[in-house]
Design a protein that fits this description.
The structure holds 2 protein chains of 2 kinds. By secondary structure, chain A is α/β, with parallel strands linked by helices. Chain A has helices at about 1-5, 20-30, 50-60, 80-90, 95-100, 115-120, 125-135, 150-160, 175-180, 205-215, 230-235, 245-255, 260-275, and strands at about 35-40, 65, 110-115, 135-140, 160-165, 185-190, 220-225, 240-245. In chain A, about 60% of the residues are buried. In chain B, helix 4 (about 90-105) crosses helix 9 and helix 9 crosses helix 10. Classes of the chains: A alpha/beta, B alpha/beta.
């Protein structure tokens, strides 16, 4: 199998032994006893999006995922689909989002969350270096699973971009350690079977996947997909090192609540995490 | 067979692969293993062959088009997939996938559909086998193909409009994949073309090789030199084309896929990744997927199956483009000369023959008549007044 992968240029490089900048910052916060909160903001949605990023950082997000909108976001539910469509209609592109991001000094580590075709189309090396130059240190590409990550990781690792891997509830036990070994920045535990979006209650599967991951890795384990409010964030962080909040935040931004509303919501989640 | 298996990573040359969310990777691996097992199991093959014969009506005949040939100066043969149950080649694939899904213990099918032919076929197979079926269809296509929407509902399927993006086939695929991400434990995604993540492009091709196999045998009896000079078919995702190409890939026959000018992934696209595969894809300067525009809902797709990208890149097949106007003329031509109303999709292949008839003069061309035109009559009535 690995010989064939090498023949096809798909060999998966080992992740560097040393954690990158992004991961180190999350690790040191976690090791200091803090529950981690990563917020997702769609880049290019309304002119005020840089202010949303700053407000969310000021309100206590430990890192921020900037969504570079893609035409076919297959892992996203209705809210992030809508946010992406609106941003694309406003003329957002990888170039405009990253150019703007250079000017946003929000004081917390930045990741991008986008789909693989944007990286593939620009070219792996060029995409990785544009991310780095824009101040981004990690990348989440939800349609690039372990078997396909090789060519991208080969370019991203030396460029200083940490590729976050997703770990799903459907993964058998033999698969999780291989996913975790390739994960940098943090391990993104997919909380449920489904796409991004808010849910009334925390899925039991999110606690199960978090525990399965905590049992096998020291890397930060954050649960995303279906974590909708402070209470759910606190609940899942009893097991995980923290969580990612996206749709619940973007619903408020899409509804026009602006940086103030976004900041207030993240402050609420932060408070719930700190009290837990 | 004459077209080889993809590599272990699911590639045809540089195209293909398995670019899916992590949640779906185990399901794709499970599906691949189940398909390998079933395809090597004679009892599965016998059961499928039985259904294809007794339920779908195979083998489909080849019709020699005397009047059309005289008018064009090209000898045209039609592989009559339009005569299959449900009116198109799509039934070959869905019967295979539904049998496989049942064998895997799945109780529910999800499918995407453009013109509605694959949706109708999926709903049919689900009804036959007592499975639940949900079909995603672009909102725009639901209006264009209202009759097929009603047929699917009659067959017991639920039809859900895809409201995002261009609200056509591409968005229906996105919705079906999102459904599958959430329901993978009991649901099989019954993908309708030779596209998507490995093993779909390969598996769907295998279920359609029956078209090529029959055609090869039929041509051997019908033609003095046993194989046609040209084998042609329309290409959206490319399932009917790969099905008929598979029977002639190891011959001297020229293989010609015909794309709509407004959705010509091979002709106008560059390599990209969407819907689980790397293939030629129509996209903008940043890699955003562009919306296709075609008179035919079934070909309104900005991508193409990865094996077609490969066959094009190695020069084994070539891909032509035709305009909507040329298709409308071909639709009328076949109706008038042969008494066969074609679906708008295969009318693309005839439109190419008609346009290039001088170059094709005296040659024998086998065209895959992938579907019948009943579904398009309403739309054509509006266009032709």
């Amino acid at each position: 199998m690995s010989a064939t992968l090498a023949d096809e240029g798909l060999l998966i490089p080992d992740a560097p032994a040393e954690p990158g900048e992004f991961e180190q910052q999350l690790r040191s916060l976690r090791d200091g006893g803090r529950k981690l909160l990563v917020a997702y903001v769609t880049g290019g949605l309304h002119d005020e999006w840089p202010d949303v990023v700053r407000a969310v950082a000021d309100a206590g997000a430990d890192a921020i995922e900037i969504g570079i909108p893609f035409s076919d976001p297959v892992m996203d539910g209705p809210i992030i689909q809508e946010a992406s469509e609106l941003a694309l209609r406003d003329g957002a592109s990888p170039v405009t989002v990253l150019d703007t991001l250079r000017t946003v000094d929000c004081g917390v580590p930045l990741a991008v969350m986008t789909y693989y075709n944007l990286a593939f189309h620009m070219g792996h090396e060029r995409f990785a270096s544009s991310l780095y130059e824009a101040g981004v240190r990690a990348a989440i590409l939800p349609d690039l699973p372990l078997e396909e990550v090789g060519p991208w990781a080969t370019a991203a690792d030396p460029a200083g971009i940490e590729t976050v891997m997703l770990a799903a509830p459907t993964a058998p036990d033999e698969r999780l350690p291989r996913v975790v070994a390739r994960a940098r920045g943090f391990v993104y535990a997919v909380g449920l079977l489904g796409v991004t979006g808010e849910r009334d209650a925390l899925a039991a599967s999110s606690l199960v996947i978090a525990q399965r991951l905590k049992d096998i890795t020291d890397k930060p384990v954050l649960v995303g997909v279906g974590v909708s409010n402070g209470q759910q964030a606190a609940e899942v962080s009893q097991v995980a090192d923290g969580c990612v909040i996206g749709s619940a935040l973007m619903r408020r931004v899409v509804a026009g609540e602006g940086p103030a509303g976004a900041g207030a919501f993240i402050a609420e989640v932060r408070a719930a995490l700190d009290a837990s | 067979m004459s077209l080889p298996e993809p590599s272990s990573s699911g590639r045809f040359g540089e195209f293909g692969g398995r670019y899916v969310p992590e949640t779906l990777v185990p399901a794709c691996l499970e599906l691949e293993a189940a398909f390998r097992d079933a395809w090597a199991d004679q009892s599965f093959r016998d059961e499928l062959d039985g259904l294809l014969a007794d339920y779908a009506g195979r083998p489909s005949p080849i019709t020699e088009c005397h009047r059309l040939s005289a008018e064009l100066g090209v000898r045209v043969l039609l592989k009559r997939e339009d005569l299959n149950h449900t009116g198109s080649h799509k039934i070959n694939n869905v019967l295979g996938q539904a049998l496989l899904a049942k064998r895997m213990g799945k109780t529910r099918l999800v499918a995407e559909t453009g013109a509605g032919q694959h949706g109708v076929a999926s709903a049919t197979a689900a009804a036959l086998m007592g499975m639940e079926c949900m079909v995603y269809m672009g909102e725009v296509d639901m209006q264009r193909q209202a009759l097929n929407v009603f047929r699917m509902k009659l067959l017991g399927a639920e039809v859900v409009p895809a409201m995002s993006g261009s609200r056509t086939l591409k968005d229906a695929v996105n919705e079906a994949m999102r459904d599958w991400v959430a329901t993978v434990e009991n649901t099989h995604y019954c993908l309708g073309s030779v596209m998507g993540p490995h093993p779909y492009p390969w598996m769907v091709r295998e279920f359609h090789t029956v078209i090529g196999k029959e055609s090869r045998e039929q041509c051997a009896k019908l033609l003095d030199n046993e194989i046609p000079d040209v084998v042609t078919a329309c290409v959206g995702g490319g399932s009917n084309a790969i099905g008929i190409f598979s029977g002639f890939a190891d011959t001297t026959a020229e293989l010609v896929g015909v794309e709509p000018a407004g959705g010509a992934a091979v002709g106008r696209g560059v390599p990209g990744v969407v819907h689980g595969m790397k293939s030629y894809l129509m996209q903008d300067e940043f890699g955003q997927v562009q919306e296709a525009h075609s008179i035919s809902a079934g070909l309104d797709y900005p991508g193409v199956g990865p094996e077609h990208s490969h066959l094009s890149s190695i020069g084994r097949a070539r891909y032509e483009q035709v305009t909507d106007d040329e298709v409308i003329a071909a639709f009328q031509l076949l109706s008038r000369t042969e008494g066969i109303i074609p679906a708008l999709e295969p009318a693309h292949a005839l439109a190419w023959i008609s346009r290039d008839r001088a170059k094709l003069a005296g040659k024998t061309v086998l065209l895959n008549m992938s579907g019948r035109g009943d579904k398009d009559v309403g739309q054509m009535m509006e266009i032709l007044g």
